[in-house]
Amino acid sequence: MLKLNMRQMKENQSGVISAVRAGGELGKRIRDMGLVPGTEIKIKGRAPLYDPVAIRLMGFTLTLRNNEADYIDVTVED
Amino acid sequence: MSVTATIALAGNPNSGKTTLFNALTGARQHVGNYPGVTVERKEGSYIEGEETFNLIDLPGMYSLTPYSLEETVARDFLIQEKPAAIVNIVDAANLERNLYLTVQFMELGVPVSIALNMIDAAQKRGIEINAKKLSKLLGVPVVPTVARSGQGKSEIMKATNKLIKSGLKTDPLIISYGEDIDQTLSEMEDEISAAMPESNYPTRWLALKFLEKDEQILDFCKNENSDLFAKLETIAYRVGRHIATTMATCPEAIIADHRYGYIKALLKQDIVTLHQDQDRQFITDRIDQVVTNRFAGPLIMIAVIMALYQFTFTYSELPVVWLENFFGWLGGVAEVNLADGLLKSLIISGIIDGVGGVLGFAPIIMFMFFGIAILEDSGYLARVAFMLDRVFRTFGLHGASVMPFIVSGGIAGGCAVPGVMAARTLRSPRERLATLLTAPFMNCGAKLPVFALLVGAFFSENEARVMLIITFIAWAGALLSAKLLRSTVIKGESTPFVMELPPYRLPTFRGLIIHTWERTWQYVKKAGTVILGISILLWAAMTFPGLPETQQQAFEQQRAAVTAAAAQDMKDQLAAIDGKEAETALKHSIAGRVGTAMESVSQLAGFDWRTNIAVLGGFAAKEVVVSTLGTAYSLGEVDVEETGSLGETLANDPTFTPAVALSLIMFTIFYAPCFVTVVCISREAGSWKWGAFSIIFNTALAFGLSVLVYQIGSIGIFGA
User: Fold this and answer.
1) Which residue stretches of B338-462 are H helix?
2) What is the DSSP string of A12-60?
3) Helix/strand/coil for B180
4) How far, in Å, CA of B349 to CA of B701, rounded?
5) How far apart are CA B296 and CA B301, in angstroms?
6) β-bridge partners, B87
7) Do B252 and A23 touch (CB under 8 A)?
8) Distance between CA atoms of B501 and A29, rounded to whole angstroms?
9) Contact flag B498-A20 (C-beta cutoff 8 Å)
10) Which of B66, B165, B496, B686 has the least CB density, counted as fewest CB within 10 Å?
């Protein structure tokens, strides 16, 4: 078990969200979309310029900018 | 027939809400706006036997705490207009996230029925849902539907009708948010019931929203009862600090966690059965592997954008020509049948040209909206935003800003009117406004004749290169001004890019047609009337006051003299006199006087009164710059396609140096958009303030740049 930041995750890597540290509008939007502790996610890919990132959770795909992914901590299997 | 009840259709974006609305209402729908905002309000009626229901298609939303304009409008509607019930459209393949909104509706205490939509797509993906059990656990009707084919639509309406008819009071759903929050909530509830026994809102919901720091609710409490507000704030602050120290998080986060926890626990009770490995690659994933690929993605995107551009401007050409011919014919009829004079001039140049001008844009707008609707409904537009976000974000814009820019003339030859309207696809308000204000810098088709004239006359040896540079200047100018606006007048954090990439779907033909028709009709109806009014005003400014009698007589005498002499080149001489008269009349008109009065300032950019009037005329439409220059140089009406003689005249005018030409090119790129665009900007931005801003800001920017170019250019020429 390894805890890391969502930005550091590689393509196709899966993990479970352990914390969302954003407040305000960003935090609210992140949580509304189901990015709450305990949710399983998988990195689907990155845009041609490596930002934003596309992630898969609960059967749908979501995009986030790298600087927004910074607020999300994920636990991954090593 | 009287209306039985009002029912709101609500759900997440991409849940098939509008498709169900279209299936239910068919053609019995109309679009308006919510008061004071630009969000569309779609209403329609559904008839079942003897009963008629009024349906409202609320904007898509993920949550009931509003951050975007759409979400605010939707919530205001639910609370203030109190529909009899909500039909909550839920994507069956995406139950967990979709129920997050459902749960919030239930917490608000509005009667809800669930349309478990796209059940066929879910089944194909191996997802089986026990609708009966879900209905029992939630205590609301659940009906599987396929909005696209209309399957289940009458069942969901019957279930909803039964729900309304039952007359049972719907109690707000109560979810446990853990000890700390629950205790705080009941404490706050007591305060609220004591202070505001008769409120529009359920008390627990009000307390919950207060803890979620919902700004609208905070303001509401502050205005209603400041004592209560202070008390609630103290309680909220206390629990906030407690949670921060013990759990290093905030009440909003805990509330969201528990809501999702409630849904997860619910779904674990054998509601969803998965028959396939969910990690399996589905069609959407396979398409995305190519379409958003690092190398193929941008190439495909360029091809799609080019195709949209071609589609919008090439296919609309034929109907545009039909309309032009029709209004040309109408003008001809008026020309023959009306007596010479002001009335004739008003009817031909003011009204017929004005109406023709308004309707001339309609086919382009129609094709543009049709093309964009395909891209949007299929899910591709979200991919474009995803791929381009990194670039456009640098300038304070959004990945989806690319469409308005391209349609406005990012590929030279577009049109800012549909371009500005294309900005509707942007959901982030600040990025959207910045896009609206900068898209008109792109080189629309009407600016091209001006460039062709000046480049042809002064830089003919480098024509292609200069045109390319002009396109480049427009892009650089638009992006940099966007950055400037976003760091000054439209300052603010960029809107989070937390966005869904929906699965690819084939758009429904009915949806596309309704979408396109409504928007085009709205343009004709709302923008059209204003545009017609302004075009009559502009006609008046270039016509009044007419030449005094003595001067008219002087021209008459000259004509008589030429006719009497019957020289060989009589025709040419007469044409020259006509031209001279038109020039004198133009100079004498309001526009001419304004142009002459501005000469002292405009000299800084190298413009004399002729150029000034031409530029003023360009406010009607940019290509009018060419024809007005023609009149001002006594050449009569110059055809925008045939500018050879005007070009020669300009090149031979010693005061019209290449530096003036460059300066005028610069000015044409950047100055005030034509008034049709200004009207559309005002409508899309929701305020005339932004229309006025675009006139002033753009003209000031254009003048600054022109002065710079002219002064540097003049030094260069004198040096050579």
Assistant:
1) 342-345, 353-378, 380-393, 402-405, 416-422, 429-438, 448-458
2) T-EEEEEEE---HHHHHHHHHTT--TT-EEEEEEE-TTS-SEEEEETTE
3) helix
4) 31
5) 9
6) B9, B113
7) yes
8) 15
9) no
10) B165
Radius of gyration for chain A, computed over Cα atoms and rounded to the nearest angstrom: 11
Categorize the per-residue pLDDT at B365 as very low, low, confident or very high, splitting at 50, 70 and 90. Answer: confident
Shortest alpha-carbon distance between residue A65 and chain B (Å): 6
Residues whose CB falls within 8 Å of the CB of residue B319, separated by 6 or more in sequence, listed in order: B363
**Gap from B244 CA to chain A (nearest CA, Å):** 12
Structure tokens, A65: 């900018």
Q: What value does the mean pLDDT take over residues B409-428?
A: 87
Structure token digits, residue B704: 């600054």
* pLDDT at position B467 over 60: yes
pLDDT digits (tens, 9 = 90+) for B225-271: 999 999 999 999 999 999 999 988 999 999 999 999 999 999 999 99
Is it true that the peptide bond before B545 is cis, omega within 30 degrees of 0? Answer: yes
Q: How many CA atoms lie within 13 A of B412 on its CB side?
A: 17
Tell me the per-residue pLDDT of B6-17, one tens digit each, with 9 for 90 and over.
999 999 999 999
Interface of A to B at Cβ within 8 Å reads 19-20, 23, 25-34, 36-39, 42, 44-45, 47-52, 54, 58-65, 68
- Mean pLDDT for the stretch of residues B626-636: 83
Band (pLDDT 50/70/90 cuts) for residue B281 is low
Residues 6 or more apart whose Cβ sits within 8 Å of residue B424: B684
CA distance A57 to chain B (A): 10
Q: Could you tell me how many residues make up chain B?
A: 720
Give, as one character, the DSSP assignment of residue A61.
E
Q: What is the ipTM of this complex?
A: 0.96
Report the alpha-carbon distance of residue B1 to residue B154 in Å, rounded: 19
Whether residue A64 and residue B497 make contact (CB cut-off 8 A), yes or no, is yes
- The residues with which B7 forms a beta bridge, in sequence order, are B55, B85
Cα-Cα-Cα-Cα torsion A5, A10, A15, A17, nearest 10 degrees, comes to 30
**Hunting for tokens 């910045």 — which residue is that?**
B434
Q: Which residues of B touch A20 (CB under 8 A)?
A: 253
**Helix boundaries (H) for B167-225:** 178-195, 203-211, 215-224
- ∠ CA B391-B394-B397, nearest 5°, is 85
On the question of pLDDT at B627 being above 90, the answer is no
C-beta separation of B9 from B23 below 8 A = no
Q: Are A35 and B506 contacting, i.e. CB atoms less than 8 angstroms apart? A: no
Locate tokens 């919008």: which residue? B312
Listing DSSP states for B627-687 in one string gives HHHHHHTT--SPPTT--HHHHHHHHH-TTS-HHHHHHHHHHHHHS---HHHHHHHHHHHTS
Whether B622 contacts B614, CB under 8 Å:
no
Question: Is A36's CB within 8 Å of B67's CB?
Answer: no
Say if residues B629 and B611 touch (Cβ distance below 8 Å).
yes
pLDDT of residue B359: 84
